[in-house]
Amino acid sequence: MQLTLTQPCSRKALLLLVSSLLLWEHVISTSDDQRSNEELSYKLLSISHRTRIVARKMYKILDAKLSKGRWFKKSGNNTCHTASYPTPKKTEDILKLIINVSSAWKYPLKLLTPATLTHLESYDGMLARAIEVKYGNDEILAAAKILLSRIQPGFKEYIYPKWPELKKLRSSNEETHLFAFYKLFYCLRNDTQKIDRYLKILVCRIIKTYKC
Question: Which residues hold Zn(2+) (predicted)?
Answer without folding.
Answer: 49, 196
